[in-house]
Amino acid sequence: MNQPRVDIYNFPHKGLRNLLSQVSFAAGNTDLSNQQALDELKTKTRELVVLLNLHRQSEEEDLLPTLEAKLPGSTQDNVEEHELLEKTVDQIDHLVKKLTLGASPAQGVQFSSMLNGFHAKYLDHMAMEESKMNPLIWKHFADEELMGIHGKIMATLAPEQIVLWFKYIVPALNPMERNIILSGFKTNAQKEFVDQVLKVIREEMPASSFARMVASL
Known about the structure:
Layout: H1 10-29, H2 35-70, H3 76-98, H4 105-140, H5 143-155, H6 159-169, H7 175-188, H8 191-202, H9 207-216
Helix pairs in contact: 1-2, 1-4, 1-6, 2-3, 3-4, 6-8
C-alpha cells in the first residue's frame, strides 16, 4: 500500500475549521449581558485572530515563496486572497474589542454577521488551497522538502503558539492523525511541555476520546 503524501494544509486547516465553527456559533448565541459569556466570546475570537495570522504568515514566508520560485506566477491569486481576508480579520478583531457588557443587540448582530460572512469566505479559501494549490505543491515538492518546510514553520512558533494550535488541531483529527502528530511531538518535546499541551487538549475533547488517545501514545 502506498503511503499518503505529506499534506501541509491538512492539520492547520482542520484546526481552523474547528475554531471557526466555535466562534461562529458563539457569535450568534452569546448573551451580551453576561460577562462570562462575553469574555469567552472575546477569548475565542482573539485565539482565532492569532491562529489566522500565524497561518497566513507561515504560508507567505515559508511555503508560497518556495513554490513561486519553482513555478513563477502560481501563487499570485492565493496571495491576493490573503490580502482581502486579512482586512476582514482586522475588522473582526476591531469589532470584538468594542463589544462591552450590555452592548446593543445591533452591535451583536453586526459582529455575528461579519464573522459568519468571513467564515464562509475562509472555508472557500481553504478549499481552494486544498484543491488547486496542493496538487501543484505535490507536483513540485518531494515529501522530504515538505517536511523541511513544516519543520521550519514549527521552529518559528513560540511555546504558547504551539499550545494554541494543538488545542484546536488535535480534537479535529481522526485517531490515526492524532497518533501521528502527538507521537512526533512526544518524541521531540520535553515531558513538561507535552503534559501542558495534553492538559489543554483534555478540555476540548470528550473524556472517553481523550483517554483512548492518551492510551494509544
